Amino acid sequence: MVKIQEIRVVDLDTKSFIKEKAKEISDMVGSELAINALSGGVDSSAVTMLGHKALGKRLKTYFINNGLMRRDEPEQIVSMFKELGVVVEIVDAQDKFFKALAGITDPEAKREAITQAFYKDVFAKLVRERLQNY
Fold this sequence. Notes:
This protein has a single domain (33-132), classed as 3-Layer(aba) Sandwich (Rossmann fold). Helices cover 56% and strands 12% of the residues. The protein has 5 helices and 3 strands. It has a 3-stranded parallel beta sheet, with helices on both faces. Helix 2 (42-55) links the parallel strand 1 and strand 2 (59-65). The longest helix is centred in the C-terminal third of the chain and has 26 residues, at 107-132. It starts with 13 loop residues before the first helix and ends with a helix. 16% of the residues are buried. The mean pLDDT is 93.
């Protein structure tokens, strides 16, 4: 069960928070491998940096290119994280996303198709393949 705890801004010590969360990640993963997907957004970027701090090279980070990004954005994100010491591999999954979106015009249906393509067709398969080779 997940414990929910409010953190008030006046009580926030970012260095302690980062250290605590990195330790939690390290304790949870142990000596094993962890895999994460990076979109370049705030949430996945924060998770990637915390995971990298906790696990170093035992964190395998992937940017899933769904073909819906701005020109050169995947390469820019990978380059930015490389400067931070995080190796990110780009996975080209454009065809899978375009196929999932074919013929869909409703915005909510598009969002669901993208979500399903990501979790069922792309990321789940990537995790299974990488863990088999570990």
